[in-house]
C-alpha cells in the first residue's frame, strides 16, 4: 500500500510539472496535481507499513 501511494504521488507531481513545462503556463489543475502528489507522498511516508 505504501509503495502504491508513493507511485501515485510521484506520477501526480510529474504530471503537474510536465504540463507546466509543456505549455509554459501555470494553470489551476497543474498546481492541484502537484499539491495532491505531495499529499500522497506525505501520507505514504507517515504510514508504518
Quickly describe the structure.
By secondary structure, the chain is mainly alpha-helical.
Describe this structure in words.
This protein is mainly alpha-helical and 49 residues long. Helices cover 84% and strands 0% of the residues. The model has no long low-confidence stretch (mean pLDDT 90). The termini are close together.
State the end-to-end distance.
8 Å
Radius of gyration: 12 Å
Shape: elongated
Structure annotation, total helices: 2
User: Taking all residues together, what is the mean pLDDT?
Assistant: 90
Please indicate the percent range of residues in DSSP E strands (runs of 2 or more): under 5%
Run of helices and strands:
HH
Q: Write down how many β-strands occur, each being a DSSP E stretch of 2 or more residues.
A: 0
The main sheet comes to: none
Q: What is the percent of helical residues? A: over 70%
Classification by helices and strands: mainly alpha
Low-pLDDT stretches are none
Secondary structure topology:
Blueprint: H1 2-23, H2 28-46
Helix pairs in contact: 1-2
Keywords:
49 residues; mainly alpha; 84% helix
